[in-house]
Amino acid sequence: MKTFSLLFTALWLSSVVGAVCAESKVVLVIHGGAASDRAKLTPEMDKRYRAGLEEAVKAGYEVFKKGGSGLDMVETSIRRMEDNPDFNAGKGAVFTSAGRNELDASIMEGRNLKAGAVAGVTVVKNPISAARAVMEKSKHVLLAGAGANAFAKGVGLQIVDPSYFRTKERWAEHKELLEEEKKKPGTTGAGLSVPSTGEWSTVGAVALDGSGNLAAGTSTGGMAGKRWGRVGDSPIIGAGTYADNEACGISATGHGEFFIRYAVAHDIVALMKYKGLTVQAAADEVVNKKLKTAGGSGGVIALDRQGRVAAAYNSEGLFRAHITESGQVTVKLFQE
Amino acid sequence: MKTFSLLFTALWLSSVVGAVCAESKVVLVIHGGAASDRAKLTPEMDKRYRAGLEEAVKAGYEVFKKGGSGLDMVETSIRRMEDNPDFNAGKGAVFTSAGRNELDASIMEGRNLKAGAVAGVTVVKNPISAARAVMEKSKHVLLAGAGANAFAKGVGLQIVDPSYFRTKERWAEHKELLEEEKKKPGTTGAGLSVPSTGEWSTVGAVALDGSGNLAAGTSTGGMAGKRWGRVGDSPIIGAGTYADNEACGISATGHGEFFIRYAVAHDIVALMKYKGLTVQAAADEVVNKKLKTAGGSGGVIALDRQGRVAAAYNSEGLFRAHITESGQVTVKLFQE
Questions:
Q1: Whole-model pTM?
Q2: Which residue of B has its CA nearest to A239?
Q3: Mind listing the pLDDT tens digit for each residue in B245-282?
Q4: Burial letters for B8-40: b for 16+ Cβ neighbours within 10 Å, e otherwise?
Q5: ipTM value of the model?
Q6: Which fold is adopted by the domain A27-332?
Q7: Cβ of B185 under 8 Å from any chain A Cβ?
Q8: Cβ of A266 and B238 within 8 Å?
Q9: Do B237 and A227 touch (CB under 8 A)?
Q10: B263 touching A, CB under 8 A?
């Protein structure tokens, strides 16, 4: 009798644990950039960012429910954030030192390591869709500048006037940055210094679709005041974005130069594959040890094939949201 | 007596082995690209490539002998090959589908993971020097297109008319490729197909200087017939170039899209650091297993901190040369 009751308890417990695990399996995680200055965030902005993240993660989840691929989920969520002027991607992107918007994006598929990216596009409404088109409709992985614009136009993506990306708020910030620069010129004359209050509100997403395939993508306006022609980590496969079904999918945000030098996204994958680290341990190792020691500010979101989500950042915050298989949404901006 | 003689024999043997090891310590390895079609190489061309490689590796060695840094060694050797019209870098670069020369280069320092790169420059005589200037004189890692040209001019590098890069031989090849394309258009209309006879004579170098620091660099005109704006692996830190004193320095050459997707240079470093592979085993794992399975043609040269040189390629040949601490030169084009 005692044995039976123990057996039933064990069975009941395992079914509860099983349900909890299924419940907590994350199918989509997104980010809206690393935040360096919490004090700057008004309650109204806080609310807007949370709403923007929730809306974007739910849009990607709708695709999941309809049986869409990880690529479709990633593209859908990122397009929402590109269209949302609060994020530094698509409409509302920051300006280069020359007062232009130059947009970067990349996307990658974990099952076959296929990837596409664009750098410095100026007329493509949704750079993430251009990145996907490069992957699917060209022989190349990365197209830059005017060539990338022409390609996007050629494959029928929505083209806009460069003024589409400009918002009043970002333009005011840009003017402020230029004034600051005049008072304290860069040491080289070759570019603006990195703004100390830099808001790196790059966006990104990592999805695990119903077939168990991972995909990841990232989109950004880059670093405020970046030198004309500067390319950050977002369009660099291995730096800002990576997806490998044997490990995880990753999207990064932060001081891009460090993310390139440390091959951040690929390093996380390598630590999982070659050292057997969990996705969270691997992300922490790179972001909170290597990058932190080097002075590279920012963070990453990651998702492995079991639906285990990870976030690691050495900045004050990382705007992020994830959604489980059953549709439960979690939104966080800082440690909370 | 017997014990003494054994001891002396052992001492003599160890000194001989020591001398051999010191003798074989490589301080500089360079490549002049992966070759896909040995039959195309006339005896005269064979001789010219060998002479070009020897001249370039010796130029870098002169810098070593004067106590120059690994960066100086890499830059010097690569400049020689950029100036040599036989290689697809600097003068003699291949053309884009639009009939232009767009040059890519990158450089990296193993002791601090600092890096610089340029993509799509059109007026800088020596792109490798522009990559180094980005690393040393800007806050950025990668500058592209017109912005990179302007930066290079701003820091005083030698600027040339775009026609400087054009050679009669490459132009004839370009016209031939366009004719071929007319007969068998690309499937997408978005770019030329990859030429099956592609000669990937990208150049690169990895050095180990007197202070024990590694440096690596790569320079290229890219893929013949590449779409305007296409960026390959050569300017991508982690793909075409990487250097980490904890593992090795690497320069790659081949079908760049695969090298980006597989983060080839960083993957070799990761296999050494996280799985304890030797430099040759790590290079083989990536080039002769992963890339070969995926259909990514090309190869790498690598050098670790002990002066152990590695070459791995799945193409017919890899034009390469190395030089030891004592000045002994080895030049190889194929398996020989």
A1: 0.91
A2: B238
A3: 999 999 999 999 999 999 999 999 999 999 999 999 99
A4: eeeeeeeeeeeeeeeeeebbbbbbbbbbbeeee
A5: 0.91
A6: Glutamine Phosphoribosylpyrophosphate, subunit 1, domain 1 (3.60.20)
A7: no
A8: yes
A9: no
A10: yes
